[in-house]
Write a structure and sequence with these properties.
Layout: H1 6-11, E1 15-18, H2 21-39, H3 42-50, H4 61-83, E2 87-90, E3 94-95, E4 98-105, E5 115-127, E6 134-146, E7 153-155, E8 158-166, E9 182-191, E10 198-203, E11 207-208, H5 232-237, E12 240-244, E13 249-253, H6 259-282, H7 286-308, E14 309-315, E15 319-326, E16 329-336, E17 340-350, E18 358-366, E19 371-373, H8 381-395
Parallel strand pairs: 3-11
Antiparallel strand pairs: 1-2, 2-4, 4-8, 5-6, 5-9, 7-8, 9-10, 12-13, 13-14, 14-15, 15-16, 17-18, 18-19
C-alpha cells in the first residue's frame, strides 16, 4: 500500500488517522508464512546431518523462531478481531504547541480500564538494500501518561480516548514519507484487559509552527494530566536511593535495576558466544575469529555493567563526586559545581523499535563542552525528570 506523499504530510491540518494494526496483520502473516515454509524442512534435514556434524543442531533455532512468528501473527489477528479498526481524529499538531484529539476503538469495560498513551518521536534509518535491507527506528523523545479515570468515554460500541500532549518546541517535525527514512511521530495506546490486551499505534504528522523560535520543552501548567507527586521512596522501589549524608545528598544507583534489559542483552551475548564457537569449530580464518572475539569482549563488559555496575553521585557544597564501580573496582571523579552549565536528560540506550523502552541518562554539560553523566539506565522518565530537577537545584543551575 503506497504511503502518503510529502504534500500529505506537510499540508494536513485536521483529519482521521487509521491505526496500524491492519497493516501489521498483513505483515505478520506474510513474514510468518514465508519463514516457516523455508525453515520447516530443516526439521527433517537436521536429524540426518546431526549424525555427521553436531553443529547442525543450531539449525533448530530457525523453526523455533518460526513458532514465535506464528504466535505473533495469531495474537495480532485476535487483537484485530476483538478491537477492530481504530482511528485517531486529530487537530493540527505543531511543535511548541500540542497534539490533541480522540482515539475511537472498541474497548469494553472502559470505566475500569487504565489506558496508557505514549507519544514518541523516532528517527527512521535504513541501511543496505534488497535482502540485506535493515530498518531501525531510534527513539529521540517520548512522553507518556495514564488517562485519568473516568475520562474514557463510551457511546454504543465505540470507546473514545481523549489525547492531549504538549509538544517540545525544539523537537524535529515529521519528514518521513511512507516507509522512507526520516522523522516519524507515533501515538500509541495500550490497556491491559482480560484476554488479548489492547494495543494500537498511529503515525501522526507533526509540523513546525510559526512561533517556535524559543526552546521550551516543559509542559504547560494544566496542559497534561496531573501526575502523582514522587518521593525518594518511589525511586527507592526502582533501585535509586536518595539520602542525605555528611558530604551532601547522595544518589545511589543500585546494580541490576533493569533486569529485563540485562536479560535480553545476556541472551544476545550467549548467542554471539555460540557464533564465535562455531567459527572456531569450522576453522574459518583467524581474522574473522579475532573480530568476533573483540566484539564478544565488549558485550561481556556491557553485560557485567548492567547487571553489577553501581553509580554513586554525591552533591556537596562545592563539588559533585561521582563513582562507578563493579564490586568495588572502578573509577571516581570530582566535578566542581561552577564548571557545570547544564543538566539535561539524554536517551543513552533503548530496546529497538517504536514500541521499545528508552533509558535515560542525567547528562551534565561542562563549561568546556564535555559531557559527564550523573546517573544512567533510568527507565521511568518521571523519575529521571524528578532527579534532574532536584540535582539542578542542589548544583545551583536553577538560580537566575
Amino acid at each position: 500500500m503506497p504511503g502518503p506523499s510529502r504534500a500529505d504530510i506537510r499540508d494536513v491540518s485536521t483529519g482521521t488517522i487509521p491505526g496500524n494494526t491492519r497493516s501489521n496483520l498483513r505483515t505478520s502473516w506474510s513474514f510468518a508464512v514465508v519463514w516457516n515454509l523455508i525453515s520447516t524442512p530443516l526439521l527433517f534435514i537436521i536429524p540426518q546431518e546431526y549424525e555427521r556434524n553436531h553443529l547442525a543442531a543450531i539449525g533448530f533455532l530457525f523453526p523455533v523462531i518460526g513458532v514465535g512468528l506464528l504466535t505473533w501473527a495469531v495474537i495480532t489477528t485476535l487483537r484485530w478481531r476483538r478491537f477492530g479498526p481504530s482511528r485517531f481524529e486529530m487537530s493540527p499538531a505543531t511543535l511548541g504547541g500540542q497534539l490533541s484529539g480522540t482515539i475511537h476503538t472498541r474497548l469494553d469495560n472502559v470505566h475500569s480500564t487504565r489506558v496508557t498513551l505514549k507519544l514518541t518521536c523516532l528517527d527512521r534509518i535504513t541501511r543496505g538494500s534488497g535482502d540485506n535491507r535493515d530498518t531501525r527506528e531510534n527513539i529521540i523523545w517520548r512522553e507518556e501518561y495514564v488517562v485519568p479515570e473516568g475520562q474514557v468515554g463510551l457511546g454504543g460500541l465505540d470507546a473514545s480516548i481523549p489525547v492531549r500532549f504538549a509538544l517540545p518546541a525544539d523537537a524535529r517535525e515529521t519528514t518521513a514519507v511512507g516507509q522512507s527514512d526520516g522523522i516519524v511521530w507515533v501515538l500509541a495506546a495500550e490497556a491491559n484487559v482480560p484476554g488479548v490486551d489492547f494495543k494500537e499505534d498511529f503515525d501522526v504528522p507533526v509540523r513546525r509552527g510559526a512561533a517556535t523560535g524559543t526552546v521550551e520543552t516543559t509542559r504547560t501548567d494544566g496542559f497534561a494530566p496531573v501526575r502523582a507527586p514522587l518521593s525518594p521512596m518511589d525511586l527507592a522501589a526502582s533501585g535509586i536511593h536518595v539520602t542525605p549524608t555528611v558530604e551532601g545528598t547522595q544518589y545511589y544507583f543500585a546494580r541490576a535495576r533493569n533486569a529485563s534489559f540485562a536479560s535480553g542483552l545476556t541472551m544476545f551475548t550467549l548467542l554471539w558466544t555460540g557464533a564465535l564457537w562455531v567459527q572456531y569449530a569450522v576453522g574459518i580464518p583467524r581474522f574473522f575469529i579475532f573480530v568476533t572475539g573483540a566484539f564478544e569482549i565488549l558485550l561481556i563488559v556491557i553485560v557485567l555493567e548492567v547487571w553489577l555496575g553501581v553509580t554513586t553521585v554525591t552533591i556537596g557544597s562545592d563539588s559533585v563526586h561521582r563513582r562507578r564501580d563493579i564490586f568495588g573496582i572502578g573509577s571516581a571523579r570530582i566535578i566542581p559545581k561552577r564548571t557545570i552549565t547544564r543538566l539535561d536528560l539524554h536517551i543513552s540506550m533503548q530496546t529497538t523499535g517504536r514500541s521499545g523502552i528508552p533509558y535515560y541518562e542525567l547528562r551534565a554539560t561542562l563549561d568546556t563542552g564535555k559531557h559527564k553523566h550523573l546517573g544512567d539506565g533510568i527507565r521511568n522518565k518521571q523519575h529521571a525528570e524528578w532527579l534532574a530537577e532536584r540535582m539542578r537545584g542542589e548544583i545551583g543551575l536553577n538560580a537566575s
